[in-house]
Amino acid sequence: MSKKHCFIYQRNRDEFQEVDKSDMAEQYFSYLSNEPDQIETYTGQNGSDAVLLLDADEHKWTLVYAKGSGIVTQRTARRRADSASRSGILIKTGERVGVNAPLSVLSESNIGDLNKSVQNKYLSNTDLRGV
């Protein structure tokens, strides 16, 4: 049995929330399988800024930004998705899903390496022994 989870991101709540409507979740996964380009449009039509999909059988997260979402929204959603890919998300049944699952981003984004923290970006190249 395939276990799939769908989470939507809204910038005003600043978190991924589990989708309660099974038909909406099924539509996202249908687009993911057949027409991945349609997910961006579908996400925007449903009032979300991004969607995070977990296929538990493949142990893989997929992040898609809504069409027209801004750079700040994309950056924040990406950080939340990175966190979910490391520590998982607690769902309503009390189970934590997606722990240590790889994350892939389907949307074309302009955020470059902004999803990295300042420490990852600069401090790895800095010698602080003399400080």
How does this structure look, described?
This protein is an alpha+beta fold and 131 residues long. It has one domain: Severin (3-Layer(aba) Sandwich), CATH 3.40.20. Helices cover 33% and strands 23% of the residues. It contains 4 helices and 7 strands, in the order E-E-H-H-E-E-H-E-E-E-H. The strands form 2 sheets. It has a 5-stranded mixed beta sheet. A two-stranded antiparallel sheet has the order 5-6. The longest helix is centred in the middle third of the chain and has 17 residues, at 71-87. The relative contact order is 0.17. The model has no long low-confidence stretch (mean pLDDT 84).
Please sum up the structure shown:
Helices cover 33% and strands 23% of the residues. With 131 residues, the chain is an alpha+beta fold.
What are the SSEs and their pairings?
Blueprint: E1 4-10, E2 15-18, H1 22-34, H2 38-45, E3 50-55, E4 60-65, H3 71-87, E5 89-90, E6 96-97, E7 103-105, H4 118-122
Parallel strand pairs: 4-7
Antiparallel strand pairs: 1-2, 1-3, 3-4, 5-6
Give the C-level CATH assignment. Alpha Beta
Spatial arrangement of strands, main beta sheet: 2-1-3-4-7
Uncertain regions: pLDDT < 50 for 5+ in a row? none
The backbone outline, from C-alpha atoms, is globular
The largest sheet is: 5 strands, mixed
- Helix-strand makeup class: alpha+beta
Features:
Severin, 5-stranded mixed sheet, 4 helices, alpha+beta, two-stranded antiparallel ribbon, 131 residues, single chain
